[in-house]
Amino acid sequence: MRNISWEAWSDEVDYGDDEEFSLDINTIMIRTPLGLFSQDEPMSPGNMFECWIGHTDFNITSSEVDRLNIVEGVEVLKIMSRYRFFIGVGKLFTFSSVRPLIESALKIGKSFLSEPRSSTLEEVMEYLQGKERWIIYQEKDGTYSAMSTDKIFDPDYDKKVKLLQELGSQNIITSDE
Is the Cα dihedral 43, 46, 47, 48 positive or negative? Predict the structure, then answer.
């Protein structure tokens, strides 16, 4: 199972409790995932976005980058290493609303993409028997995956179906057709 851990990112400098701390320099530059910025710069990441670092236990491939780039609310994305990325959430979104979308897009935990995978379409269809709504799609490696819901009206399911279509998943079959 794929996992992710989140760490809030801030560009504030902690000078500790040292009252005698003083600087003879007019501007303090802060290293951010997006480059060097002055702490009081209005365009610095900390002033523009709600910033988070995602730590994963899987490689962040170009496929994951494509998925993250279409998540609503993710305004800035910077890959920091093969297991770590920086995001800036736009001011009109909240991390609490964007986080589940990111985790679904990255197939985290019990997300919609963790439902059955099989080399045969018949096995996946057998699993989906009795489900109210479902979708089957073919992964890039040729295996079949599915997601389902027991609700007729399920906004989360509809968002996930839209995400799959935007990602260009192949051979999509839905119960809605």
Answer: positive
Which tokens belong to 59?
């490689």
The confidence score (pLDDT) of residue 113 equals 39
Q: Report how far apart, in Å, the C-alpha atoms of 114 and of each of 103, 109, 155 are.
A: 11, 7, 19
Bridge partners (DSSP) listed for residue 5:
55
For 72, the enclosing helix (H) or strand (E) is none
Please give the model's pTM, rounded to 2 decimal places.
0.51
Q: Which residue has the higher pLDDT, 47 or 23?
A: 47
Query: Helix (H, G, I), strand (E, B), or coil: what is residue 149?
Result: strand
> How is the chain split into domains, by residue range?
4-105, 112-174
- Asked if residue 149 lies in contact with residue 133, where contact means CB atoms within 8 angstroms, the answer is yes
Which residues 6+ apart lie within 8 Å of 163 measured at CB? 67, 70, 101, 104, 105
Q: Quick one: average pLDDT of 123-148? A: 77
Please tell me the distance from the alpha carbon of residue 58 to that of residue 38, in angstroms, as a whole number. Answer: 33
Tell me the C-alpha distance between 176 and 166, whole Å: 17
50: burial class by Cβ within 10 Å (0-12, 13-18, 19+)? buried
Does the domain at 4-105 match CATH 3.40.50? Answer given as: no
